[in-house]
Amino acid sequence: MSTRSIDRIIMPPSPHMVGDGFRVHNFIPGSVPGGMERTNPFIMLDYGSKHYFAPSNTPRGVGVHPHRGFETVTVAYQGRVEHHDSAGNSGVIGEGEVQWMTAASGVLHKEYHEREFSKQGGEFQMVQLWVNLPAKDKMTNPQYQSITRDMIKRVELPENSGTVEIISGKFQGVQGPATTFTPVHLQNAKLEASATIEFSFPIHYNTALLVIEGKINVNGMEEVSKDQFVLFRNDGEEFLFKALEKSVVLVMSGEPIQEPIAAYGPFVMNTRDELIQAFADFEAGKFGRLED
Ligand code: MN
What we know:
Distance between the termini: 53 Å
Strand content: over 45%
Bound molecules: manganese (II) ion
Number of helices: 3
């Protein structure tokens, strides 16, 4: 039994636009010293803090782009995201839902605000997390896991003090629905004011929190507010936090993939040669076709 201490608390960096629909703060790798290696298997985290988008007949979003070598995990907290890909897949990620897309050998896709949401306008809040793949799986076939609200596993905390929603990995022995290539715990802790919760993950797993709503105290030491990110050290297993007000916290912990990382834009591979190959395959149309 040993406490996992806080490495650093990171304030949300200035937002930037991805396309015209995603106003995001980049925590990983841009705000973490040591970058992707430090947080591996989490190699990118864009957080769209709550932002009002006015009604628009043309859905805002990001046009056709490729991915290869990892998974994109989109968590919609408010608003709805629609996607289309080069294999003919499409769908909507509704509020409280998750899309776990294994890009692997490569997809072309586009991501937009869902049409009806766009017409009405409204508050939009989402997370996009990229999860690395081991070398042996980087060129596996693409696939989707559409994780709807009814699929997400829930653990109710004592005395109605909150709920843990398990997307992947385990909490108190309850396994979430997402299938992962390496151990990845991704969970939303939804706590009433003054509730305390404890988590435990293997010491070498890279572990972080993103406060989505409210304010918490971590390990009885540090206050962390909405839109702030907590990176833990790898010096213990357990940590706890107390909700100082009604709070939602995204908890992520994953086993590092001990392989070299070669990353450029939407491609995350192991070697520079593999990156060059990814560009060549993209230019040659091997990721398929999709209308913008
Ligand atoms: Mn994408």
